[in-house]
């Protein structure tokens, strides 16, 4: 079965920034791990788009969210990639999750939200503690708006606090991180295939 993935890189850097993005690397590693499972993926840098503040699917003129929303919902697997800042998910990631709040009111005649049947993974990098906390925040939000989280659906790397060695600078990805990425990819592809072949039935309103 052919599957697709769409990733949003919620770095605080736009794509034109000279500094390399560790978030880009962990997303790339995850997409590479998904490919043997028949999943083709695309990555978009969120800051390259103007996502207006708000909780609607379209905030009007100049809002780039509707196009990104369309890509998220067209894919079988959504990857939210983000850095940790001050122990929190990046503000860019929080903006993305805020905009998904609109899904709560966009149910079909069976009560299913637009993300029903879609799988979500969360990939996190940082030079401070907080990966588990950030995963908890993101998983809760994504689950609330209809995504299904697979077992071991969170991957992360955190470096020593306050140091300047980033994930993208490592000469080799740590074995445990590679194992986590491969497991997340395997579980996500398996679950996405099941949901694509047999969708949630919902409930009568």
UniProtKB/TrEMBL annotation:
GO terms for molecular function: oxidoreductase activity. It comes from the Bacteria. Gene3D superfamilies: 3.40.50.360. Residues 8-160 form the NADPH-dependent FMN reductase-like domain. Transmembrane segments: none annotated. Keywords: Flavoprotein, FMN. It holds the Pfam family FMN_red. This is NADPH-dependent FMN reductase. It comes from Mesorhizobium australicum (strain HAMBI 3006 / LMG 24608 / WSM2073). The lineage of its organism: Bacteria, Pseudomonadati, Pseudomonadota, Alphaproteobacteria, Hyphomicrobiales.
């Amino acid at each position: 079965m052919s599957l697709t993935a769409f990733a949003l890189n919620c770095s605080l850097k736009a794509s034109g920034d000279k500094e390399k993005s560790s978030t880009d690397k962990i997303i790339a590693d995850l997409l590479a791990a998904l490919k043997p499972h028949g999943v083709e993926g695309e990555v978009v840098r969120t800051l390259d788009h103007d996502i207006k503040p708000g909780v609607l699917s379209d905030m009007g003129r100049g809002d780039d969210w509707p196009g990104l929303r369309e890509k998220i919902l067209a894919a079988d697997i959504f990857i939210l990639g983000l850095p940790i800042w001050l122990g929190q998910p990046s503000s860019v990631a929080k903006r993305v999750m805020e905009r998904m709040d609109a899904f709560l009111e966009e149910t079909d005649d069976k009560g299913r939200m637009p993300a029903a049947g879609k799988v979500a993974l969360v990939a996190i990098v940082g030079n401070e503690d907080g990966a588990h906390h950030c995963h908890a925040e993101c998983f809760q939000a994504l689950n609330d708006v209809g995504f299904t989280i697979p077992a071991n659906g969170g991957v992360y790397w955190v470096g020593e606090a306050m140091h300047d060695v980033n994930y993208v600078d490592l000469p080799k990805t740590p074995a445990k991180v590679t194992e986590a990425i491969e497991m997340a990819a395997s579980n996500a592809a398996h679950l996405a295939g099941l949901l694509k072949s047999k969708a949630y039935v919902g409930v009568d309103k």
